[in-house]
From TrEMBL:
Pfam families in UniProt: CTE_SPB4 (PF13959), CTT_SPB4 (PF23681)
Domain ATP-dependent rRNA helicase SPB4-like C-terminal extension residues, every copy: 28-91
The protein's name: ATP-dependent rRNA helicase SPB4-like C-terminal extension domain-containing protein
Residue ranges with Basic residues bias: 140-164
Keywords of this entry: ATP-binding, Helicase, Hydrolase, Nucleotide-binding
Ranges of biased composition (kind: Basic and acidic residues): 210-219
Species this protein is from: Channa striata (Snakehead murrel)
GO molecular function: helicase activity; hydrolase activity
Coiled-coil boundaries: none
SMART domains associated with the record: DUF4217 (SM01178)
Record region (Disordered): 128-179, 191-225
Domain of life: Eukaryota
Cross-referenced InterPro entries: CTT_SPB4 (IPR056330), SPB4-like_CTE (IPR025313)
Length: 225
């Protein structure tokens, strides 16, 4: 498809091109470039940035009918830039490239030869790890806290239901069952992120207060009798 651009330049831009004969004695320097990328992160970064810039420029070309990103040979392009792995970018999302084999080495472990740049990178990595470490437990603690409260409440409700059944010889009241189902639905919404922990606590507390008031009212009625 790109060959159509030659005719386009000749006709529209008055810029004729001549085909060059293939170079038969070209030296394969790609292994050396890949080795350089493994030895210095600066070289690794240059290759990644060059690949991304090429793809983005290709996608924004004015002759989009000729230069179509979906027809671009990403595997050959990555090999040409001597990449060790493919970068994460929208144009590659959901695609697989069997013709391109990524390195089995951990590219995050590639260091800068420049000691100052490497020192800054290590500092940044440490800050990111600390940020992740401080945020994840908090999230898990919130869910575990909510789950513990819900579990404790269920156990108390079961004990009350068993006591009523023993004293009155009846099953769990419909009101208790509705409240149990409602609390279960609220917990599921909390786990899915559909409601905040504050909303969860508020709705759980309001339900418990409502039930306490109802029981108090019933007790007063019984005392009046």
């Amino acid at each position: 498809m790109e060959e159509s651009y030659v005719n386009f330049l000749s006709i529209n831009q008055k810029c004729p091109l001549q085909k060059m004969p293939p170079v038969c004695d070209a030296v394969d320097v790609l292994p050396k470039v890949r080795a350089m990328a493994l030895a210095d992160r600066a070289m690794f970064d240059r290759g990644m940035r060059a690949f991304v810039s090429y793809v983005q420029a290709y996608a924004k070309h004015e002759c989009s009918l000729i230069f179509r990103v979906k027809d671009l040979d990403f595997a050959s392009l990555a090999l040409g830039f001597a990449l060790l792995r493919l970068p994460k970018m929208p144009e590659l999302r959901g695609k697989t490239f069997p013709d391109f084999t990524e390195t089995t080495l951990d590219t995050d472990a590639i260091r800068y030869k420049d000691k100052n740049r490497e020192k800054q990178r290590q500092k940044m990595l440490a800050e990111l790890k600390e940020k992740d470490r401080s945020s994840l437990p908090k999230k898990n603690f919130t869910k575990n806290k909510a789950w513990s409260k819900q579990k404790s409440k269920k156990e108390r409700r079961k004990k009350k239901a068993a006591k009523r059944k023993h004293d009155e010889g009846s099953d769990v009241e419909d009101e208790d069952m509705k409240e149990l189902l409602n609390d279960t639905r609220l917990l599921k919404k909390l786990k899915k992120g559909q409601i905040s922990e504050e909303d969860f606590e508020k709705q759980i507390t309001s339900g418990a207060n409502h039930k306490t008031e109802a029981h108090t009212h019933d007790s007063l009625d019984e005392d009046d009798v």
